Amino acid sequence: MVVVTVVSFSPVYVVVYPMSSWVLDVERALAEHSDASSESSSRWQRHCIYRVPACIKNHNPKAYKPQVVSLGPFHHGDAELVPMEDHKRRALRHLLRRSGRPLEAFAAAVEEVAEQLEDAYQDLDAEWRAGDEGGRERFMEMLVIDGCFLLELMMVAGAGEDEGRSSGGGGGGYAPNDPVFSRHGMLYMVPFIRRDMLMLENQLPLLVLKRLMAVLTGMPPIKRMVLRFVSPSSRPTPDGDELGLHPLAIYHGSLGHGPYRVSRRHDVPDTGGAEIIRPATELHEAGIKFKKSWTDSLHDVRFFRRGGVLSVPAMSVDDSTEYALLNAMAFERLHAGVAAGAGNDVAAYVFFMGKLLDSARDVALLGSMGIVQNAAGSDEAVAKLFERMSKDMVLDPSETELDAVHRQVNAYCRRRRPWRMCGGGGGARQSRSDAWLRTPWVLFAIIVLLVMVIVQTIYIVLQFYELRHR
Fold this sequence. Notes:
Pfam families: DUF247 (PF03140). Keywords: Membrane, Transmembrane, Transmembrane helix. By secondary structure, this protein is mainly alpha-helical. The protein has 4 domains: about 1-45, no CATH class; about 55-255, no CATH class; about 265-440, no CATH class; about 445-470. The protein contains 19 helices and 7 strands. Strands 3-5-4 form a 3-stranded mixed β-sheet, covered by helices on one side. A two-stranded antiparallel sheet has the order 1-2. Strands 6-7 form a two-stranded parallel ribbon. Helix 3 (about 85-100) packs across helix 6 (about 135-155) and helix 16 (about 360-370) packs across helix 17. The model is unreliable at about 160-170 and about 425-435 (pLDDT under 50).
C-alpha cells in the first residue's frame, strides 16, 4: 500500500490508494534499466553495424539486402545466399594451404577481440552471443570464414590476379572455370560481391580483417586493400594509425576526402532562410557556367563569383551507384558514434545533385561538361535515380558547407537577373509550364509582338473610319 498526503488550507487529508501489480513491475524494470544505463551508453558507442529500419528501406528495400553473399550475422543463413557458403569454405582451404598457417592461428587471433567484435553489431541476436550455448563459437566461426573469404577474394582480384589471368585461371591455384575466382567469375560474379560489401547490414568489422591479415603476412595494410577492391576508381587513402570501422565506412570516407573548399560562411550572403539551388538548365540560362572539379571529392563543390562558375566533382552513375550512396546515407543517419559520428556529407551532396539534376535536360547539360558520366541508361533514368534518393531525406538542421554554395549561386542569380526569381528564398519551386517566362529575350519578344499587334489594330481601325467618312 502507498500513502499519499494532500496539503491544503483546510485540515490535512490522507488518501490511500491500492498499489497495482503492474506499477510494481514497471518500477522494478525502471530501476534495473537505470542501473544498466551507463553500460548501455558505453555499448552504443561501440556500435557501427546496424539493421536499417523500415522508414529508411521503404523506398527501395532491395538496395539494403545482399544478393550474392552474406557477411556477418544479420543475413547469415538467408536462403538465397546459402550457395556462396561452399565457395567461402573452398576459399578458406586455398588460403590455408597457400599460407602454410593452421586454422587455429587465425581463430585465436580473432577470439582475442571477440567481445569488441560482438559489440560492433547493433541488436545482435542472442544465438550469436556468449550467453547462448555455443553462440560465441558460432559467431567466431562465421567471422573467421567470412573474413578469410574476403581476404582471398581481394588478394586474387588484386595483387595475384595478373599471374592467374595470364594463363586463363583466377590466380591462387584456382581452376580456369572456377565460378568465383576465375577470370569469368571476376567479370560476372565479383561485381555483385563488391556491391554486397557496401551494404550496411552486411558488414564485417575491419578489425577481423586486420587480425587475419596479421597472421597471414605480419603487416596488414588493410584499409588501402579494402578500398582498392570496393571502389577501384577511388583515391587511395593512407592506412595511418586509425583502423576504420568496416568496408562501407572506408568507402564513405573516400567519397569526401580532403577539406571543404567553399567560402567561409560569414562571407556568403544570407537571405535569412533556407535556400535551395535551382536545376542546372535554369542556372545555365541565368549565366552560370559549369566545370568539372579538379578532384572527385564530394567536398570539392565550389562557386567562383568572378565569372559565375560552379565547379562540381565528376561522378560515374551506374547500376550500383544508388545502392552504394543509399547505404552510405543510412550509415550517416544511424551512426551517431562518438563526437561527430559519420557526418552528413553524402546526404548533403545527394540533396544538392538531386536539385541540380531535376530533368533529363539537366543530366544532358552536366554530362556535356563531363560532370555526370552516365552508365545507367537514359538521362531521364539518372534524374529519376537522384529524385528517389532525395525523397524523404532528413538533413542535419545545422548548416552544411554546401548551404554556402546554394546561397552564393542564388545571390549571383539575383544580382544578374533579379526579375527571374532564380533560386528564390525558401526553395519555392516554379512550374515547368511557365519556364519560358524566365528567359528575358523571350519576354522582350513577347512585348514587341504585343506592341506590333496593338499598332496594327489601331491602323486597321483608323483606315476603316477613314473609308467610311469619304
